[in-house]
Write a structure and sequence with these properties.
9 helices, mainly alpha, 2 strands, 188 residues, two-stranded antiparallel ribbon
Length: 188
């Protein structure tokens, strides 16, 4: 599993990651909000992480854009459905509260802690490169110029960082992050 995971991570870093900025621009041109674009990009990476055999993909860029297009279509279809809420009484319509419940808030906070812990495992330079690439959407060339390193360094650090974070985030969720740190320290 580890060798296969490493091969998949290297493939994603080499064949998919360079197209992320183009994908974001393509999605934005389709009148999507920034949060919708982010959701679709993240879901694309989740789908890619679940691939059992990536070697059969001849056109990785086309495959990525196909995943994104299907996700966008599904998202639009869901958004176009009109919800009819039951009448609470004759005085008006019951309004659905979209505020997340305590369980969703707790789960979100736990995921945020896991993401922060995953970022903390990276070196300072790798963390900066990852954030500049994934959060700020800068190109490898822009990052290299900003940090005064070669594009090869940026590409290598971005690829390694993505592999490390994907591995960290897809490991079975521990009951809490501090125990995960203890578990990781013991395994090294």
């Amino acid at each position: 599993m580890s060798a296969e995971w490493g091969a998949l991570s290297a493939w994603v870093g080499r064949e998919i990651l360079p197209h992320e900025r183009d994908l974001r621009l393509w999605l934005q041109r389709r009148f999507m909000s920034e949060s919708e674009v982010e959701d679709i990009v993240q879901e694309c990476y989740c789908r890619l992480a679940q691939l059992s055999d990536f070697r059969q993909i001849d056109e990785p860029r086309a495959y990525l854009f196909t995943i994104a297009r299907r996700l966008a279509q599904h998202q639009r279809k869901r958004a176009s459905v009109v919800r009819m809420e039951a009448l609470d009484d004759f005085d008006g319509i019951q309004v659905q509260d979209d505020t997340p419940g305590p369980d969703r808030i707790a789960a979100g906070r736990q995921e945020l802690r896991r993401a922060q812990a995953a970022l903390a495992t990276l070196s300072e330079r790798a963390r900066r490169i990852f954030i500049m690439r994934r959060v700020d959407g800068l190109s490898q060339k822009e990052i290299a110029a900003s940090l005064g390193v070669s594009e090869a360094v940026v590409e290598n650090d971005a690829s390694r960082s993505l592999r490390a974070i994907l591995k960290y985030m897809t490991d079975p969720a521990p009951s809490d992050v501090p125990n995960a740190e203890v578990r990781r320290e013991r395994s090294h």
